[in-house]
Amino acid sequence: MLYTGIDPQKKQVQNLAVPKNLSDPYLVEWVKSPRNPLAAPTTANQINASSFRDPTTAWLGQDGVWRMIVGSKRRRRGLAVLYRSRDFVHWIKAQHPLHSAPLNGMWECPDFFPVSTNGVNGIDTSSLMDSGVRHVLKVSLDDTRHEYYTIGTYDRSRDRYIPSKGSVENDSGLRYDYGKFYASKTFFDSIKNRRILWGWINESSSVEHDIKKGWSGVQAIPRTVWLDKSGKQLIQWPVVELERLRTKRVDLTNKILRKGSVVSISGVTASQADVEVSFSVWRSDLEKAESLDPTWTNPQLICSQKGASVAGQLGPFGLKVLADEQMKEYTAVFFRIFKRRGNNYVVLMCSDQSRSSLDDDNDKTSYGAFVDVDPQHEELSLRTLIDHSIVESFGGMGKSIITARVYPTIAIGEGAKLYAFNYGAQNVTIPRLSAWSMEKAQINQSQR
């Protein structure tokens, strides 16, 4: 295990630890290498001693040499510092980074991995396949606490990563998640041939409340990650194991949501639920969609200005979760459809936390993302995982994801309700809705 430590001079350094007992299936105890640190800032290498952290999963090249990258910066340029080793102990810094980008600031938690262009299966990080493979570089921006990723090509001969032409290398580009989600990391599951993403949901409550609660931050539900058929973005979906917790299924089919309607989804434990729903719009109604102002390029800003209570032509329509019966508290996850020149349509997905809690000490920022779906030919799908203070929403079958951390005061326990709604001027149909109450997860721990 490679990890970042702090030396006596407060410099960030890269260290190694190995399992104490390989027969322990949980690998509970670890031993630090006597050779630590394996990589450190020096006058010669000019690495920023306070911005040098988070080694990636190492990968083995065809030449038998291990490689890893470590996040860093040089002034305002984000760096993926490249190291090589033949024995996983003696690491030598390469002359050039694997990749860098200007005006990014510190690159935390970099992640570099291959994805297949021929299906949903994952690929081992050390795979030597070149045909049918692209590579992903994800970085977490310390300045904005947002992440972004690019898809591109790994030039093995030069140890360089080249993003695809047109890639946006800042947090207005592609993101795993457009809400509270940071410091993420993937790994390859060789048993089920899939790549799994872990991410951290940071808090929305005050430090004072965090101390009273006794926790601050939590891992999101693990997600399986693969390359979309278009090759332009990644798809994410909750790991299939989560479905084992489903119970007490409730279904709704071919339900028309008329203008201003709110429909209660009863029979599920609304504070701990898994909801899958699809929406469709009649083609004749699509022509009535509002025009998208060409200056509306920031989806979060649009969602902040056009929250769930702002009526439009096509939308807002979606779910109100963690809601009380009087609607004093709710988190709304919804879509809006806009028309663009050339008879094209833009789908906006929002997670509106402005009414999520009567406690104004909470961060109630709204989040937004565009979803690459065509409402002329596709239904708009939404899957939302609700877990008391967490709302993870997957739009467009995992094309755009928004995670929210909310702390309602009355929409809790049995006081939490679930609704579908439509505040747009045009009717919307729900072809299918399935909702499940979710059982508690069993956390496996070693018996010591």
TrEMBL record:
One of its GO terms (biological process) is carbohydrate metabolic process. Signal peptide: none annotated. It holds the Pfam family Glyco_hydro_32C. This is Beta-fructofuranosidase. The keyword Hydrolase applies. Belongs to the glycosyl hydrolase 32 family. PANTHER family: BETA-FRUCTOFURANOSIDASE, INSOLUBLE ISOENZYME CWINV1-RELATED. The lineage of its organism: Eukaryota, Viridiplantae, Streptophyta, Embryophyta, Tracheophyta.
